[in-house]
Amino acid sequence: MPAVSKGDGMRGLAVFISDIRNCxxxxxxxxxxxxxLANIRSKFKGDKALDGYSKKKYVCKLLFIFLLGHDxxxxxxxxxxxLSSNKYTEKQIGYLFISVLVNSNSDLISLINNAIKxxxxxxxxxxxxxxxxxxxxxxxxEMAEAFAAExxxxxxxxxxxxxxxxxxxxxxxxxxxxxxxxxxxxEWTTRVVHLLNxxxxxxxxxxxxxxxxxxxKSPEDFKTSVSLAVARLSRIVSSASTDLQDYTYYFVxxxxxxxxxxxxxxxxxxxxxxxxxGRLTECLETILNKAQEPPKSKxxxxxxxxxxxxxxxxxxxxxxxxxxxxxxxxxxxxxxxLQHRETNLRYLALESMCTLASSEFSHEAVKTHIExxxxxxxxxxxxxVRQRAVDLLYAMCDxxxxxxxxxxxxxxxxxxxxxxxxxxxxxxxxxxxxxAVDYTWYVDTILNLIRFAxxxxxxxxxxxxxxxxxxxxxxxxxxxxxxxEALQAPACHENLVKVGGYILGEFGxxxxxxxxxxxxIQFDLLHSKFHLCSVPTRAxxxxxxxxxxxxxxxxxxxxQEVLRSDSQLRNADVELQQRAVEYLRLSCIASTDILATVxxxxxxxxxxxxxxxxxLKRKKGPGNLHPDLDENRKERSVNGGTADHxxxxxxxxxxxxxxxxxxLLGLGSTIATQNSAPPASKGASLLVDVFSENISAxxxxxxxxxxxxxxxxxxxxxxxxxxxxxxxxxxxxxxEPEDKFVCKNNGVLYENQLLQIGLKSEFxxxxxxxxxxxxxxxxxxxxNFAASVVCQDTLQAQxxxxxxxxxxxxxxxxxxxxxxxxxxxxxxxxxxxxxIQFRYGGTLQNIAVKLPITLNKFFQPTEMxxxxxxxxxxxxxxxxxEVQNIFKAKxxxxxxxxxxxxxxxxxxLLDGVDPNPSNFVGAGVIHTKxxxxxxxxxxxxNIQAQMYRLTLRTSRDTVSQRLCDLLSExx
Amino acid sequence: MIKAILIFxxxxxxxxxxxxxxxxxxxxxxxxxxxxxxxxxxxENVCNFLExxxxxxxxxxxxxxxxxxxxxxVFCVDSSESELGILDLxxxxxxxxxxxxxxxxxxxxxxxxxxVHNILAEMVMGGMVLETNMNEIITQVDAxxxxxxxxxxxxxxxxxxx
Lengths: 971, 162
Description:
CATH topology of chain B: Beta-Lactamase
Largest sheet of chain A: 6 strands, antiparallel
Strand content of chain A: 5-15%
Keywords (chain B): Cytoplasmic vesicle, Golgi apparatus, Membrane, Protein transport, Transport
InterPro entries (chain B): AP_complex_ssu, AP_mu_sigma_su, APS3, Clathrin_sm-chain_CS, Longin-like_dom_sf
Largest sheet of chain B: 5 strands, antiparallel
Largest interface: A-B, 83 and 77 residues
Shape of chain B: globular
Helix content of chain B: 40-55%
Oligomer: heterodimer
Membrane topology (chain B): Peripheral membrane protein
Family (chain B): Belongs to the adaptor complexes small subunit family.
Domain AP complex mu/sigma subunit (chain B): 1-147
Number of domains of chain B: 1
Strand order of the largest sheet of chain B: 2-1-5-4-3
Structural class of chain B: alpha+beta
C-alpha cells in the first residue's frame, strides 16, 4: 500500500494549483495568486473560527505560493497558533510553515519557543520530534538560549525513544554550530561518546555526526571516541552484508555510518594504542580488499555505496600519512579508478590523488599516473573532471616532470574552457618559475602563455617575468631576442607589448649588434604597436623610448621627433602628455652622463614570494578571507609600484606599495616611471629625501629624483635646490610636528621603530585633502589596524575631518594609504588628533599624533599693489585686529628661505610694497565655510640683533592671533 | 553539512526548496535559478558533482545532483560530506518518495508539497543526515499518515471545499 494515497489530497488546494499551472502568462499567475492571498487573508481575519482542515489547506496554499517565489507577509500568527493544537495534522503543518518561512530573527520566536517547550515535555515522541526539528531548522540564538540545556538531557535520557534521540543529537549539533558558547557539553561528554555503542544504527549515525563536530572544536574532550569508533567500524566492516538488516544498502553494510565513523577518525592522529591501531589498520585493509572483490550487485547504487566507504578510508589513510603500505595501496586503488568508466569515480580519484601527491611516501607513486592524468585532461568530456586533472598535474609536478606537465598544460590552454583559463595560466606561470632550471625555458613559457591566452594573463604574471629577467643577467640577452621575435607577429597581445617594451627598453642593447635588430628596427617595431595600445601601455612605451635615447644615441633624433609630435605633446591624456613633455625636455637638456645615470638599468628587485602564487591562493579560496589574501594584496602593490612602468598619477596602487612609496610621497606622484624603484636597502633614506618639497618645484625632473641614482647627481642636476628642507625632513621628530608642517604640506609626520606615517596634502579654499601613508617598517603584518581622527571640544564645530575607511591590515614592509577629507568651518586653533591602533605580534599599539592641519592651510594668496596694500592696512587699524610679535631668530636669517616660508605659509609675497627692501610683506584670504578673512602680514628682520618683528592684521582678532603664533615659530 | 536541497524540473520550475542556512527570500530564488543554470547545461553522462554557484559559497561548496526524468534533485553540501554518500542519499530519497506515492511523478511533488517536506524531514534535519534506512523512514511516514487519517476523518468536510 502506498503511504500516501492520492485520493486524500485537499481538493481546494488541488484546484488552486491547477489554476496556477493553467495560467498562460506571468501576469495571469500573479493575478490568480493575489486573488488567493486576498481570500486567505479574509479567511484568517474572519470572525468564523476556521477548522483544522481549512487552516491546513490555507497554509499549504501559502507554502505553494512561497515556493513560486512570492513573498508571504501574513499567516505567521495562524501558523504559530497551529503549534499549540493537540491534533497532529495541525501541529505538523504549523511546524512546516515555520521551518520554511520563519527566519531566525522573527519576533514570533518567543511564542514559538513556548509551543516547542510544551511539545518537548509532552513525552509524545512524534510531537517531540516535530519540536526538535523546528529548533534545528530555525536554529536561532533565542532558541539556543531556551533549549541548549534541555536538548542534551533528552539525548542521554534512558527512556528516550530512538527516533527522538536521533533528532536530539542533530538538534544539539545545530545549536552547537549556531551558538557554540551556549552549548556546554561538560557533564554530558562521556554519555554522548557512549552513544557510539547504541544498538540503533540511526542513533549511532546521528551521534557520530555530533561527535565529529564537537571533536573538531575540542579534540581532547572527545578523545575516547576514537577507540569506540574503531570498534564500531570494525564490527560493521567484518559483518556479513545481511547482519545489519535494514541498514544494509544494496549489499553494503551501513555505508553512511561507516563514512561518518571514518570522518570522525580524521579528526585525530593515528591511535597511539597499538591494539586499536592494529584493529583500524585491519579495517582499512578489509575495505581496500573488498574493492577488489567482484560486485555483489550490478546496480550502480551498490558500487556507489561501496566506493563511498572506500574513498573515505583512503582519505583517512592519507590523513594519517603514516603507513607506507596502505598509502601505496590507496594510490594504486585510485590509479584504477582513474581509468574507471564511471565519471564520478574518475573525478573523485583525481581529487583524492591531489592530497595524496603531497605525502612524501606516495608522491612518487602518484607520479606514475602522469600519462593517465594528461590523457584525462585531453579526453574528458566533463569540465569538472578536467579541472581536477589540472589540479592533480599541478600537485604532482616536480623538477623531474615539470617540462612535460607545463607543456601539456600549455597545449591544453588553447582549447581549455574559459572558466578555468585564468587559473591554468597562474598555475603554469608558477610551475615554470618554480622548476625552471634554465631561465630561457621560463621566458619561452611565459611568452607562450601570453600568446595562447593573453587575455587571461593577469598583471601579476607579466610583472613577475620582468622581475625575473631583471634579476638574472644570464637570461637578459635571450629575453630581449625572444620578445623581439615575438613582437614581429602582425597581431600580438597587448601584454606582449608591455613585456616587450620593458625588456627592450632595458636590454635592447644586448641584441642591437645584429643588423636585423638594430636600434632603429627595435624602435620602429615597438612604435608600430603604439597606436593600438591602451593608455597605460603607451605610457610604458614612452618610458621605453627615453630609455632607448640613453641606450642608442643614434636614434635620439627619431625618438625626439616622435615625442615632439602633436599626438604626444598635446595628447588628451594628461599622463601621456606629461611623459612626452618631460622626456623630450630631459633628452634635450641633460648631458650624456646624466642621462646614463638617470636612465640606468633597473636595479635587481628584492627577492620575494611570487605574487602569482598569492593570487592563486586567493582564487582558490574566494569564500574565506585567509591571510594569504592580504599577502597577495601586498605583493600586488609591490609590483604595481616597481615593475609597472605604466603607473599613472591617479593610480592609488603605487601609493600602497612599500619601497616605492617614495615616488608618491615625494610628490613623485606627478609622475612615476620606470626609474621609480630604489633598491630596498636605500629605501629609508630615500624616503626622507624625496619627502622634501623642493622636488615638487621641479616636476619635470621628478622621475630622475626617484630613480636609483645617487643623491649627488640629483642635486647637481638641480643646482638651485635649497638644502634646507632636507635638514628639516631628516629630523622629523626634532620639532613639534605641527610646526614643521606649517609651511609645507608633505613629509614624515611620525616615526617609531614599527611605523612611519607620511603625509601629503593639498588645500583649496576651505577644503583640503590629506593622504596619510602608514608604512609598516617591520616584516610582520599589523592586524586590526584602525586610524581615526578626533576633533576635540570646540574644534568639533570648527573643523570637519572625514577619514575614508582603510584596510584593517598592513603587511610587513607595506604601506597603507588613508584619505582624509577636511573642511574648515570657521577659524580654529587646536589640531585634530590622529589615533592609530593596531596589533603587532599580539600586543596592541596605540599612537596618537596631532595632525598638522593649521589655519594657514586655508590661505589663498592675494596679489595687490603697494597702494592697495597700505589702504587696507589702514582699514584694519583697530587695536584688536592687529597682533604683533617680536622674537629671536631660531634659524639663519636667509632671505630666500624666508621668502619660501612665507609662500609656503600660504600668503602672496608682495615685492616692492614695503619701502624697506629687507622687509617682507604678504597678503591673502583665509577661507572658511562661514566667512572669508582678509589677512595682511609684515615681517621685519633685524640682522644685527638676530630678531624679527612680525605684524599681522586681519578682520578677525582670533585669526590675527593664530596666524601670528603659527608664523612666529617658523623663523 | 547540507546547505540546501533543491528540486526543480527541466524548465527550472522549483518543486521543493529547503535551505538549512538562512538566506533572504530573494537570494533563495536567485540561488535556485543559478543552480538550475549550472546543472541544466551539463550533459547527461558527465559526473554528478560540480562546484557550487557563487551565491551559495562558490568552490567551498559542491553541488551533487541527480536527474530523474523531468526532475533535478540537487544537494548543495560543504566539504564535510561524502560525495558518493550524498548521491546515495538522493537515491534513498527518491526511492522513498516512489514508495510513498507509488510511482512518484512531478505532479505528486506539486500537489503534496507538505508530504514531500515531511518525508525529507525524516531524512535530513538541520542540514545533517538523520536517517538513511528506507524502511525506518517509511514506518515513520506511515505512522504520521495514520494519525492524519484518524484526524481527517473527524474534520474533513469536502463538499464545501474551495
